[in-house]
Design a protein that fits this description.
Keywords: Membrane, Ribonucleoprotein, Ribosomal protein, Transmembrane, Transmembrane helix. This protein has a domain of 66 residues: Ribosomal protein S19/S15 (30s Ribosomal Protein S19, Chain A). 27% of the residues lie in helices and 12% in strands. The chain contains 2 helices and 3 strands, in the order αβββα. It is elongated and about 80 Å long.
């Protein structure tokens, strides 16, 4: 198996990959969003200020292009996976209300003495 060093980026002599958006000038003037599924498209300096709707495989994610995004790919700004978050297990979700009640009951009992 071959190891990859950093990433298999595009060769410098080939230049950036971008798709031609036919209504680019019109979208800049009217401030409308352009729908695209070209996630591999490199963001160019003339895209700054543009609103794009980038497809993540399920839906279109709105992306506002800024100067810091130039040189990156469109796909970097529309995640394809949901964020992971831990959830309470069923065991703890049933025990939690009774534990809270016991804590408040003992505090009330100690105040009354």
């Amino acid at each position: 198996m071959r190891t990859t060093l950093v990433s298999l980026a595009r060769s410098a002599w080939k230049g950036p990959y971008f798709t031609a958006f036919p209504n680019l000038a019109e979208a800049l003037q009217t401030n409308t969003a352009i729908r695209t599924s070209a996630r591999a498209c490199t963001i160019l300096p003339n895209f700054v200020g543009l609103k794009l709707l980038v497809h993540n495989g399920k839906e279109y994610i709105p992306v506002n292009i800024t100067a810091q995004m130039v040189g990156h790919k469109l796909g970097e700004f529309s995640p394809t996976r949901k964020r992971f978050s831990y959830k309470f297990s069923l065991c703890f979700s049933f025990l939690l209300p009774s534990m809270i009640f016991q804590i408040f009951a003992t505090q009330r009992a100690s105040k009354n003495r």
